[in-house]
Amino acid sequence: MDFSALAAQGQLMEVAGLGLALLASGLIAGFLAGMFGIGGGAVLVPVLYQFLTVLGVDESVRMHVSVATSLGIIVPTSIRSFMAHKKRGAADLELLKSWLIPLPLGVVAASLVAAHVSGSGLKGIFAGIALVLGLRMLMDKPHWRLGSDIPGAPIRPLCGFGIGFFSTLMGIGGGVMNNTFMTLYGRPIHQAVATSSGTGLMISVPGTIGLIWAGWGAAGLPPFSAGYVNLLGVAMIIPVTTFAAPFGVKVAHALPRRKMEIFFGCFLLVVAIRFLLSLNGY
């Protein structure tokens, strides 16, 4: 019995299975991008991390590659999601215009520090924020509103900077944070979702470029990588995410506000639990 051939066949089947999982995650990520105004990074990052683990990518760069590749995948998803929402007239274009400078500045700042943040640190940041936001969405109360409308300076630009900064470090398009920011100031969840697709575009493009720069020449990167962005992963998942995004948009505009909040809150809690378990070796 040729044990080496059996082992090689087993490894091939395992990689093929993960490839199918990546395609499935792309469908889910694209659908969520349209439904929640997110880029799907919360789904993609842990799946990409597992894929890179099986391939034996160095642990020191594994999480960074997952985050950066997720941002690269988010670019076309965000474009298609934003255009679909914009066509319906649901996005707050005035808010997006006011964030044209502070939000990308947050992205640039995150790119500068990305190489100095450990993989465990990125997981902890992601899980902590997702847990808090998910619980807030599920236990939403009127008295939790911070105001009747979104404030101007200095709160608005500071929040834009923070959304860009933390979203880049987590490999997401900013929908998680922007949805919460807008609903805390009394905006409808459907408008928040539509606007978040715009923040995803403003974060993913400079974020991808910044993490290519931050990881350029880093040791232990997998093949077909440009900096921390793995081009093979981007090429595999982009087609299915862009295909699925408009279906999520249709669902978003068909559901009542409270159901959207409950679905979004449950989604965030699942993401938080997934990352917390991975921090403890599960």
Question: Can you put this structure into words, describing what you see?
Answer:
- The protein has helices at residues 3-36, 41-54, 59-87, 93-98, 102-114, 119-138, 155-170, 175-184, 189-214, 231-252, 257-279; strands at 225-226, 229-230.
- The protein is an all-alpha fold and 282 residues long.
- The protein has a two-stranded antiparallel sheet.
- The longest helix is centred in the N-terminal third of the chain and has 34 residues, at 3-36.
- It starts with a helix and ends with a helix.
Strand order in space, largest sheet: 1-2
Described by strand count, sense and barrel closure, the largest sheet is: 2 strands, antiparallel
Helix vs. strand class:
mainly alpha
Low-confidence stretches: none
Total count of strands = 2
The overall pLDDT, averaged over residues, is: 80
Global Rg: 18 Å
**Oligomeric grouping of the chains:** single chain
Number of helices, where a helix is a run of at least 4 consecutive DSSP H or I residues = 11
Strand content: under 5%
